[in-house]
Design a protein that fits this description.
Blueprint lengths: L15 H14 L7 H17 L9 H7 L2
C-alpha cells in the first residue's frame, strides 16, 4: 500500500461554512454516528485529496469515508 500525503488540513479544502453544512447533513442522515460527523467529512475530504493526487487509481475508501459518500 502506497501512502499519499495531503498538504495542510483537509478542512482547508472547502470553505468553513460548507464543511459545517456537510457535517450537519451527515449527522442528520446518520444519527447512529452523528458524534463522528465532522471526522467523517474530514476523512472524506482527505480521501478526495489523495485520490486527486494518485492518478494510478487503486485507492479504496475506508468504512468511515464510505459513510460520507452516502450523503
Amino acid at each position: 500500500m502506497r501512502s499519499v500525503r495531503i498538504h495542510g488540513s483537509s478542512t482547508e479544502l472547502v470553505a468553513p461554512d460548507l464543511f459545517s453544512r456537510v457535517a450537519v447533513r451527515v449527522a442528520a442522515s446518520l444519527p447512529h454516528v452523528s458524534h463522528l460527523a465532522e471526522r467523517i467529512v474530514d476523512r472524506a475530504l482527505a480521501f478526495l485529496a489523495a485520490a486527486a493526487q494518485e492518478s494510478g487509481g487503486g485507492l479504496v475508501p475506508s468504512e468511515m469515508v464510505d459513510l460520507g459518500w452516502i450523503n
